[in-house]
Amino acid sequence: MLGNEVKTEPPLCAAWRPTGRPKRVIPPAGAWDMHAHLVGPATTQSATRLFTAPEATVHDYIGLLDQLGIQHGMIVQPTVHGHDHHILLNGLRAYPSRLSGVAVVNAEMAPAELDLLRDAGVIGARLFDIYGDGAAMADLESIATLCAERGWFLQLAGPGRLYPLLEARLASLRLPVVIDHLGWMDLTDGATGGILDCLLRLVRYDHVYLKLSALNRLSKQGPPFADVVPLARSLIDVAPEQILWGSDWPHIGLPDATPGTEAVLDFLADCTCNARQELILVHNPRKLFRATKDARP
Predict the structure, then answer these.
(1) Which of 34, 40, 47, 68 has its CA 20 to 30 A from that of 281?
(2) CATH class in words for 34-294
(3) 3-class SS at 151?
(4) Where are the domains of the chain?
(5) From CA 232, how far away is CA 140, in angstroms rounded?
(6) Chain-wide mean pLDDT for the chain?
(7) CA max distance for the chain
(8) Torsion, Cα of 56, 215, 279, 204 (10° steps)
(9) Hey, is 38 helix, strand or coil?
(10) Per-residue pLDDT tens for 262-279?
């Protein structure tokens, strides 16, 4: 440490709140929450993290699923844990019949490490481009190859402006691709038209899926997220068989109060009918899982 430089701790984000029962959506048997995180104590979180997330254990998450009436969950490696997958792996091993996982990988990871993730229940890999300029996607095709070799899908997260940059590359991939958080569009930037058009084209491909998740990160109004409904409806109407749903629990990285997760599930009632809700919660996840296995060389 030089001179009087003082090391500052990353800011603590808002704690997750207990979840009530959904009032408008009754999940059908076999429903999936396709996006949640497990978080270990602050001492286990990455030294380079941008914030400190409150602990959220696998037992907390199973309690949430039971409260919502959902059987299965997809645990996505959070940014606060970087490439240290111990919390994820322990969670998957604790509930192998209910949980699967998405890891954060890079092209240099040893095959043995990737196989360890697969054997514990990981079935997807996530690439995160925080700046949306495409630089973090330089290894897109090589990561896609690693995924296809193991029967995984590829999951992408980044600002909406990222997807027009990647459209041709994503369209040409030969494995399932999942786009997080409704494409993470800024509903106030006036640029949603071109980005939305891009997403509407992408979800017409059988191998591209789009996830209704992180509503609180998109909405400027909060629950019941009425300002996000038109966007969600437009995507569901074009490709109802390509839409997934995720709670984004425990809603990490928010400086203010987190939403009740039941409101995120009830959002579906404003977007589509019961039959399509069953597609989104049950049949589309199953279709994705079948497609990952079919994509193996």
Answers:
(1) 40
(2) alpha beta
(3) coil
(4) 34-294
(5) 26
(6) 91
(7) 64
(8) -120
(9) coil
(10) 999 999 999 999 999 999
